[in-house]
UniProtKB/TrEMBL annotation:
GO terms for molecular function: uroporphyrin-III C-methyltransferase activity. Gene3D superfamilies: Cobalt-precorrin-4 Transmethylase, Domain 1, Methyltransferase, Cobalt-precorrin-4 Transmethylase, Domain 2. Its EC number is 2.1.1.107. This is uroporphyrinogen-III C-methyltransferase. It is an enzyme of class 2 (transferase). Keywords: Methyltransferase, Porphyrin biosynthesis, S-adenosyl-L-methionine, Transferase. The keyword Repressor does not apply. It comes from Agromyces luteolus. It comes from the Bacteria. Pfam families: TP_methylase. InterPro entries: 4pyrrol_Mease, 4pyrrol_Methylase_sf, 4pyrrole_Mease_sub1, 4pyrrole_Mease_sub2, CobA/CysG_C, Siro_Cobalamin_biosynth, Uropor_MeTrfase_CS. Residues 42-250 form the Tetrapyrrole methylase domain. GO terms for biological process: methylation; siroheme biosynthetic process.
Length: 293
């Protein structure tokens, strides 16, 4: 089953407007826009899944105060474009270091060095990363490199796509009686060693290219070929779409529908809870394993 997801965007009036009570503590020296003797620093900011309304208030403050924004492709660029469309003016220079699958135009080592060089020049740098900096975002590597170079670093968490993208399709990663644990993985190599049963949700990031092999591998275990699977493409983006099937059918469905990255794949019985699940899968949720006390 394939459906376009309606209403995926947060209402414009909800995106930027936010209560300001209690936020005075954020106006520290790092976000001050006055004075020429300020010390450069780096803020690793999670952009979330690409929806400006899901950017944290602290993340927005950091962007507004930045001299330079070093931006990823996924999530980060969408947030910047969305903020601009809503009239939010950012004075910072934007440096695009986005990566495509299998092609890294700017190597990670060069990104690390760029952050340190800019901060040493007294710049307030935001490293804007899709999702959360610490969830497959190499944020830990960048933080370590900056600290080794004597640069102060702040981490501003973001909403990882592993949670937020399934949510837009109505899929919780845990649900009483269906799943109490979940694992987030990338790539087929990690799938090879992944155990567990269908009540253990698997979230596969960057896995479209290896979907067929991953489905076969997962179906060989206790999950079985009839285990539900959902693919959510371009979550919160203009072509967001959800395709639901089973481990035995999903590779064929994806090929027929021309599924492409970016996409998040969810494997497990929680997929039955999606309003986009076909009747034969959704109905069988009534006969799910007994609720866990």
């Amino acid at each position: 089953m394939t459906e376009n997801i309606p209403g995926g965007r947060v209402a414009p009036e909800a995106r930027i407007e936010a209560p300001t009570r209690g936020l005075d503590t954020l106006a520290d020296a790092r976000y001050s826009t006055t004075g020429d003797d300020r010390k450069g620093h780096v803020a690793l900011v999670g952009a979330g899944p690409g929806e400006p309304g899901l950017l944290t208030i602290r993340g927005l403050r950091a962007l507004e105060a930045a001299d330079v924004i070093v931006a990823d492709r996924l999530g980060a660029r969408s947030v910047l474009d969305g903020l601009a469309a809503e009239g939010v003016e950012l004075r910072a220079e934007v440096v695009d270091v986005g990566k495509l699958p299998g092609h890294h135009a700017v190597p990670q080592d060069a990104i690390n060095e760029l952050l340190v060089t800019l901060a040493r020049d007294g710049k307030r740098v935001v490293r804007l990363k899709g999702g959360d900096p610490y969830v497959f975002g190499r944020g830990g590597e960048e933080l370590a490199y900056c600290r080794e170079g004597g640069v102060d670093v702040e981490v501003v968490p973001g909403i990882t796509s592993a949670v937020s993208v399934p949510a837009i399709a109505g899929i919780p990663l845990t649900h009483r009686g269906l799943a109490t644990t979940f694992t987030v993985v990338t790539g087929h190599d990690q799938i090879q060693s992944l155990g567990g049963t269908r009540d253990h949700t698997v979230v596969l990031l960057m896995g479209v290219g290896t979907l067929a092999n991953s489905a076969i591998t997962l179906a060989r275990g206790e999950r079985g070929a009839d285990c539900p699977v959902a693919i959510v493409e371009d979550g919160y983006g203009p072509r967001q779409r959800v395709t639901i099937g089973t481990l035995g059918t999903i590779a064929h469905q994806a090929a027929v529908r021309g599924v492409r990255s970016p996409a998040v794949v969810v494997v497990g019985d929680v997929v039955r809870l999606s309003p986009y699940a076909p009747a034969e899968l959704a109905a069988s949720a009534l006969t799910a394993p007994p609720a866990l006390d």
